[in-house]
Amino acid sequence: MITVAVVDGQGGGIGRVIVEKVKKAFPQINVIALGTNAVATGQMLKAGADEGATGENAIVHNMQHVDVVLGVIGILNANAMMGELTPAMATAIGGSHTHKILLPVNRCHIHVVSVEEQPLGVHIDHAVEALREYMEKAGASIEKAQRL
Question: What phi, psi does 123 have (nearest 5°)?
C-alpha cells in the first residue's frame, strides 16, 4: 500500500483540501497528516487523514517512511509559513528520496514562473492526477519485480 504524507502549516486549509481530494480519489491509500502545528494537523485529520502527527520531529521522522509527499512548494524552503517550517523540516523533505508532488503556490517568498495562474483547487486536482500517475507507474514496477 502506498503511504502519502500531506504537509501543511498555519491554518491547515490547503492540507485539508488536499486530504479530502486524495481520499475521495483513492480511499484505500494511507494518508498521514503532518502539520507544523496542531491546528493544521487537526484540520487534515477532520478531512479524513488516516493518521496525524505534529511538529519538527514528526515531519523529519516520517520522511523516511512515506512513498509520496504532497504540499505547497514552500515546504522545501526553511522558515516558510511565517517561520513554522523549520530548516530541519525543509532539509528532511527536500533531502528525502520520497516522490514529491508540490503545488506552485507563490507564497513563502517563492515565485514560480512559467506556471499558469489557476485557482488553488485546480492545482490540487493536478496534484491528485500526478499522484494517480505515480501510483500507476509504481504499481507497474512492483508487478514487474514480482514476476522476476
Answer: -60, -40
- Residue 79 has phi, psi (to 5 degrees) of 70, 15
Cα 135 from Cα 118, distance rounded (Å): 25
Q: Give the span between the Cα atoms of 17 and 11, in whole angstroms.
A: 12
CA atoms within a 13 Å half-sphere pointing along the CA-CB vector of 44: 34
Comparison of pLDDT for 142 and 17, the residue scoring more: 17
Q: What is the pTM of this model?
A: 0.87
DSSP state of 60: H
Model confidence pLDDT, tens digit, residues 69-102: 999 999 999 999 989 999 999 999 999 999 999 9
- Phi/psi for 32 (5° steps) reads -110, 125
Contacts 24+ apart (CB under 8 A), 118-124: 120/14, 120/17, 121/17, 124/14, 124/17, 124/18, 124/21
Handedness of CA 20, 4, 125, 108 (dihedral sign): positive
Q: What is the mean pLDDT of residues 30-59?
A: 98
Angle (deg, nearest 10), helices 38-46 and 13-25: 30
- pLDDT digit string, tens, across residues 106-121: 666 777 777 788 898 9
